[in-house]
Amino acid sequence: MNTTKPPIIHLNERDNVGVTLVDLDPGNLIGSDNLSARAHIPAGHKVATRRINTREPVLKYGQIIGFASSPIKPGDHVHTHNIELRAFTRDYKIGTDIRPTELLSERDRANFTGIVRADGRTATRNYIGVLATVNCSASVSRFIADAFNEEDLVDFPHVDGVVALGHATGCGMASDGEGFDLLQRTMAGYARHPNFGGILLVGLGCEVNLVDCLLENMNLKSSPLLNVINIQTAGGTKETVRQGINRVRQMLPEVNRVKRTSVPASHIILGLECGGSDAFSGISANPALGAAVDLLVRHGGTAILSETPEIYGAEHLLTRRAVNREVGEKLIARIKWWEKYTSNLGGEINNNPTPGNKAGGLTTILEKSLGAAAKGGTTNLVEVYRYAEPVSSKGFIFMDTPGYDVTSITGMVAGGANVICFTTGRGTVCGFKPVPTIKLASNTSMYQHMKDDMDINCGLIIDGKATIREMGREIFQLILEVASGKKAKSELLGFGDHEFVPWHIGAVM
Question: What is the distance between the alpha carbons of residues 26 and 311, in angstroms, rounded to a whole number?
């Protein structure tokens, strides 16, 4: 491999900008034709490789990422000061890029050691969850879970822990409609998640999202491993905590009675997320994860791309991979929903990137989306799901979620994701119990600075020390190992208790 970094990289022959791989100062050469930088340009930012006239498209990845707001000369720094967003037509061409997926025979598929539940679903972890139905019961849920530390669980070695999941809603909202449906669907997804061996639902007793209402609407049935308690009927905080602790203790022996067995990789449902991105995310970590997704799909597994506002501007590349018109139209409908939703709230779907993204070299949501979509690999888009809907399809699928990382992943976990891969260029720290989260760094500098948080350094691609395909194979292997019980860095640090954030839609009343 070439270990010498060139000053810039061109991602597509159509591009009129390059991405700087090193900091450039005025006069530094940036190409073989004696083109030099006209200003200081930080690594990861864009430099013009030819003249771009006002209102002319700026091209990266061979796609439009914005339009020049003023004349841009070769060697100029191309960023927020000279790029603007303008409306333009995207040709969705539904299904024109579909191709047969070369699935491996069952004999040749990879395996991992998972926990097979009685209903046939496969878990990668084995937690007991204390799930608050409303914010008013969040603290009591925490008090119950906090009674169980490592010492208390020493006699239950197959139980990964007792985790409380509280949230900020559940009341002060309409008792029907999309927002209420989203919340109940999310909570039901967690209550049913195979990574929970047992669940204790904790309600207050007078909230909109009543425990009994949740059970009835979501077809959940109470049992020794799906227990319910209300603070008001139990006798207040202390009595609820006492009863809750006892109920969890009664669950422990049964939840501990599991064994890991060899199961095919087709039982993996992988959630894909990128947060705290930089310009290298779309060049290294995201396409490397996409290569791992292609491997997982070939082995019969499922991968979920999400964050609808962060595929905005790249959705036409996904619709071209849709297996049929219905799937393509579903994705377009979600984009149009978001355009209307954000407009009604006085915002825009392109209200992005974040300040950290911009500091890392990303200029527009179109640029960010094109890099983010690379996480989905190259196989066909087989289905589009609404937020927190149970995922049943095999292959590459899309779930409609916000771009906010914790809310997006909450939806994917509710849908059944049992492993998460999270790419980052700035260094996002988080975890999502009961599901393990693998962190993929987009650049070597951040990886070395935050080694305790990052699982894999995809910056080796930028450094010329690894190919996208090689990194994809390494990611796929780590997915199998983590699904088999190896702890990801975020798990070793104890993350995951505070990242349950259901999507809140509607008025708070």
Answer: 34
